[in-house]
Write a structure and sequence with these properties.
Layout: E1 15-19, H1 25-42, E2 47-48, E3 65-69, H2 75-85, E4 94-99, E5 103-108, H3 111-127, E6 135-137, E7 143-147, E8 167-168, E9 171-172, H4 176-188, E10 193-195, H5 203-206, H6 214-224, E11 230-235, H7 239-242, H8 254-270, E12 276-279, H9 296-307, E13 313-317, H10 337-342, E14 353-358, H11 373-376, E15 381-387, H12 403-411, H13 423-427, E16 438-442, H14 458-469, H15 475-487, H16 491-511, E17 549-550, H17 570-575, H18 585-588, E18 591-592, H19 603-626, H20 634-666
Parallel strand pairs: 1-2, 1-3, 3-5, 7-10, 7-16, 10-11, 11-12, 12-13, 13-14, 14-15, 15-16
Antiparallel strand pairs: 4-5, 4-6, 8-9, 17-18
This protein binds alpha-D-glucopyranuronic acid.
Keywords: Carbohydrate metabolism, Glycosidase, Hydrolase, Polysaccharide degradation, Xylan degradation
Protein name: Alpha-glucuronidase
InterPro entries: A-glucoronidase_C_sf, GH, Glyco_hydro_67_aGlcAse, Glyco_hydro_67_C, Glyco_hydro_67_cat, Hex-like_dom2
């Protein structure tokens, strides 16, 4: 619930005018959101001046907020707006311009751009920034998407905030108001696409493509539509077989192609602006083209041809690896898998296919190098997949603000076309002049009253949207902005919450698996310390700790050769011990515990220090939060307090298990004599 602003609203906000196609739902939403924000801030709705939509009318003569689509603007405003938007490549771009006499114009070529601009003005209003300050903002990524791992039974795979917002007991069954609020929330951060079901498509969700379910999918799509959000479905590659309609799902069989064409036609009859399919194939026991001796380009292109006549796209996941590996074979390396599978296919995917690549080569660990497919693929549309839900980063019981990690990923220089070939440039499509690109985040919301279980986990959702729109934003600035919009303007609160958020990822990394090895978690649910939980398993997730050393040799010289998947100079940087960054050392090299890091510490001393420091950081966070009592509302205060206190206990557990594990392996005591359980 928003509180009124102490000084009310600027003069221009007291009136508004709207210009654009009459009754356009997205434009209506933009106007309604702005009016609602003004009402919340001042107690009064803005007076509606002109702008019966469709009527190009005159420029308002009194100060007001005039919003609309370029083509419908009164001529007095149109010229300046046209000029402002001339350089913007996206129709979703918006411009804000001051108007003579104290008014403000908000303009876009498309209604969706007006909606994003309205939320921009709402941010300015709440943050006390001048409304009319000129600006042009264009999304860096065309596709800004949330992937829900929701199941029809109402559970959420890797969900930590309650049950699904979309499903109950095997049905698409949702609270219209709640979903509408969710759509508002997503639009306010610029998200424009959503995959509504888990990439692991089970029996019921396979039927979402049928007449029995499509009207309900369409209802859900209808709830998102006014907020400019297009719905996607995760599909089961074996659908024609599993639905009992064909004996095969071979992508090169004409019957299969025809089946998918009919499925696509059917979907578009119900949902004319349907986004397309998200596909997990030949991965973790999901069916795919390999069954038929076909490759992933065969599979993706077949689906893409079915969607193309309707303007839909296929988002094909690159998360493909052998999950039946042998820990005895030290040459086998899961990290290599995505690159090895997809590089040979570069150039074979149709233009309406995007390959969705996880940020790292493994699986959303707290620290991984960037996937070498970014910058590797040059003739394929790619998308970056991030995990907003905190599967491996504290499951929303720990605070772990992920924007600083994502920012490192986006800023990472692949050197694919020389310096400046950042991941952000690759995934936007710009680096290689690709027609499509984007960013997807695995959603962290559920039906918990605060959406994300941990109130501070909302910052991750917020940051995802803001970075997908503009990867150049600064994570600390985003944290500050989120805090002010969420908890208000008390500078003491803002400093403390920003401090907690910014300290949280480094702290989590410090008290969990060290120096990039990852995976020291309990198998299955992936929470809590278990240093050898995955060490002798089939999943390909090893650290090879023994009495002398730890780490995975992924060099070309003596290891799995994974470093060879990067362009120079990154390849050499990781290949050599002398240049490999400390935080990734054990990802790339197997070293003795006495190896000296760039920091000057030995590996074992770093492990001990990091684990003690990590716990201290959480203790600091608890104290910093405790001092906010009385400065923020008691409900959120208590809820976060309880989780932070729990986090201290969990961090201590991590510290002691990991320190003892390594102490028992190597027998080297802590230089500083702190207690390590024998
Ligand atoms: C991880 C996660 C699974 C998920 C998979 C994926 O392995 O634990 O729950 O299905 O990633 O991204 O497909």
């Amino acid at each position: 619930q928003e509180s009124p602003l102490p000084d009310g609203v600027p003069e221009a906000a007291r009136r508004m005018a709207v210009f654009g196609p009459a009754g356009h739902p997205v434009l209506e939403c933009a106007a309604a959101e702005w009016a609602r924000a003004v009402r919340a801030a001042s107690g009064e709705s803005p007076a509606l001046l002109a702008g019966d939509a469709g009527d190009a009318g005159d420029a308002p003569s009194v100060p007001c907020v005039a919003m609309g689509v370029l083509s419908a603007l009164p001529s007095g405003l149109r010229e300046a707006a046209q000029e402002a938007l001339a350089g913007a490549h996206s129709d979703e771009a918006y411009a804000v311009l001051p108007v003579d006499g104290g008014g403000v114009a908000l303009v876009s070529r498309a209604p969706a751009g007006v909606l994003y601009g309205a939320f921009h003005l709402i941010r300015r209003l709440r943050l006390g920034q001048p409304l009319g300050e000129p600006c042009v903002s264009s999304p860096r990524n065309d596709l800004r998407m949330l992937d829900h791992w929701d199941n029809a039974d109402g559970t959420i795979e890797r969900g930590y905030a309650g049950r699904s917002l979309f499903y109950r007991a095997g049905q698409i069954d949702f609270d219209e108001g709640r979903v509408r609020d969710y759509a508002r929330l997503l639009a306010s951060i610029g998200v424009n696409a959503i995959a509504i079901n888990n990439v692991n498509v089970h029996e019921i969700e396979t039927r979402f493509l049928t007449e029995a379910y499509l009207p309900h999918v369409a209802r859900l799509a209808g709830a998102f539509r006014p907020y400019g959000i297009r719905v996607f479905l995760s599909v089961n590659f074996a659908s024609p077989v599993d639905l009992g309609e064909l004996p095969t799902a071979d992508p090169l069989d004409p019957r299969v192609e025809a089946w998918w064409r009919a499925a696509a036609d059917r979907i578009y009859r119900h949902i004319p602006d349907f986004g397309g399919f998200l596909v997990k194939a030949d991965s973790e026991f999901r069916p795919g083209p390999f069954t038929y001796g076909r490759d992933h380009a065969d599979g993706a292109n077949m689906l893409a041809r079915a969607l193309a006549p309707h303007g839909g796209v296929v988002i094909w996941r690159a998360f493909v690896y052998n999950c039946l590996m042998d820990w005895r074979d030290r040459r086998a390396d899961r990290a290599r898998a995505a690159y090895d599978h997809f590089m040979p296919l570069d150039g074979r995917f149709l233009d309406n296919v995007l390959l969705q690549i996880k940020n790292g080569p493994m699986d959303f660990q707290v620290r991984e190098p960037v996937s070498p497919l970014f910058g590797g693929l040059s003739a394929t549309n790619v998308m970056l997949e991030l995990q907003i839900t905190q599967e491996y980063t504290g499951q929303q019981r720990h605070v772990c603000y992920l924007a600083p990690m994502w920012k490192q990923v986006l800023d990472f220089d692949t050197h694919a076309r020389g310096p400046g070939s950042t991941v952000a440039e690759v995934v936007s499509g710009r680096l290689y002049g690709r027609p499509r690109g984007g960013m997807a985040g695995v959603a962290n919301v559920g039906d918990d009253v605060n959406w994300t279980g941990h109130s501070l986990a909302q910052a991750n959702l917020y940051a995802f949207g803001r970075l997908a729109w503009d990867p150049s934003l600064d994570p600390a600035e985003i944290a500050r902005e989120w805090t002010r919009l969420t908890f208000g303007d008390d500078p003491y609160v803002v400093r403390a919450v920003e401090g907690i958020l910014m300290a949280s990822w480094p702290a989590y990394e410090a008290y969990t698996a060290p120096l990039g090895v990852g995976w020291m978690v309990n198998p299955g649910h992936h929470d809590g310390p278990n240093p050898e939980g995955y060490e002798y398993s089939k999943w390909g997730t090893y650290h090879y700790a023994d009495w002398q050393g730890v780490g995975v040799d992924r060099t070309m010289a003596t290891g799995t050769g994974y470093t060879g998947q990067y362009h120079e100079p990154v390849r050499s940087l990781y290949e050599h011990l002398e240049t490999c960054p400390d935080e990734l050392l054990l990802f790339f090299h197997h070293v003795p515990y006495t190896h000296v890091l760039h920091s000057g510490k030995t590996v074992i001393q770093h492990i001990y220090d990091a684990h003690f420091d990590g716990v201290e950081a959480v203790v600091w966070m608890v104290e910093a939060w405790r001092r906010l009592e009385g400065r923020i509302d008691p409900v959120r205060f208590e809820r976060v307090m309880a989780r932070l206190e729990d986090q201290v206990q969990r961090a201590i557990e991590w510290r002691d298990v990991i320190n003892t594990y390594f102490y028992r392996k190597c027998g080297i005591p802590d230089e500083r004599g702190r207690h390590i359980y024998p």
